[in-house]
Amino acid sequence: MLTGDAQKFYGLLFGIAFSTLLITQQLTIFVNLIERGASGVYNAPEAEIWVMDPVSRTTEVNYAMPSTALDEVRSVKGVEWAVPHLRAPASVRSSTGDLEGVQIVGVDDATLIGLPERLLEANKSILSQPDTVLIDDVGITNLFESGEDPIGQRLELNDQRAIIRGVADAIPSFTSQVTLYTKYSQALNYVPGTRNRLTFVLVGIKDGESAEAVAQAIEDQTGLKAETRAEFAQAGVNFIIENTGIPLNFGITVALGFIVGVAIVGLTFSLFIRDNIKQFGALKAIGVTNRKIAGMVVSQAAMVGSIGYALGVIGTVLFILGFSENPTFKGFYIPWQVPFVSMVAVIVILSLTGWLSLRSVMRTEPAAVFR
Amino acid sequence: MTMSDLQPQHMDTTAIGGCAPDAAICARGIVRDFQAGQSTIRVLHGIDTDIKPGEMTFVVGESGSGKTTLISIMCGILWPTEGEVKVFGTDIYKLSDTQLVNFRLENIGFIFQQYNLIPSIDAAANAAVPLIAKGMAVEEAREKAKQLLEKLNIGDQAEKLPNQLSGGQQQRVAIARALVHEPRLVVCDEPTAALDASSGRRVMDLLREVAVAHDRACIIVTHDNRIFDLADRILVLEDGLVTHDGSDMPDGH
Ligand SMILES: Nc1ncnc2c1ncn2[C@@H]1O[C@H](COP(=O)(O)OP(=O)(O)OP(=O)(O)O)[C@@H](O)[C@H]1O
Ligand SMILES: [Mg+2]
Question: What pTM, to 2 d.p., does this model score?
Answer without folding.
Answer: 0.80
